[in-house]
Amino acid sequence: MTRQWRAVPTYKENLIQKGETSAAYYRFMNDIHTGNPPSAETTITVKASPFTYTAPRGGTVIIQGGSVSQVTYTRSSTAYITGQTSGMFPVGAGDILIVTYSGAPTMTFAPL
């Protein structure tokens, strides 16, 4: 059986075995502690303004450069104008960022 370091142990796996943390939980907690990223960041292809980006999973969207006039964050059908035009925007799966610009920014997604 191949193990993944970041794999979450199932309910069938005991936390403690023979008075020590089980191997499955040790690997899981060790990876969280060391902060190893699950995968590399990806470049977002920015299309026509206003550009809508829907996060595929939890992470951070980095917006830099360009001539951005507004970034709107939407979750559960509630939209918020962020008041920021660049920087790091934490997102959960399904969250939406709408970026309005006159000069396209560079956007990057860094997964959790």
Cα-to-Cα separation, first versus last residue: 26 Å
Q: Please state the second-level CATH architecture of the largest domain.
A: Sandwich
Mean pLDDT: 87
User: Quick one: biggest sheet?
Assistant: 4 strands, antiparallel
User: What is the name of the CATH class of the largest domain?
Assistant: Mainly Beta
Instruction: Determine the strand fraction and express it as a percent band.
Output: 35-45%
Strand order of the largest sheet: 3-10-5-8
Query: What's the order of the H and E elements?
Result: EEHEEEEEEEE
- Please give the radius of gyration in angstroms: 19 Å
Indicate the overall shape.
elongated
Residue windows where pLDDT falls under 50 for at least 5 positions: none
Number of domains: 2
**Proportion of helical residues:** 10-25%
Question: Please, how many helices?
Answer: 1
Secondary structure: number of strands: 10
CATH topology of the largest domain: Jelly Rolls
Question: What structural category do the secondary elements indicate?
Answer: mainly beta
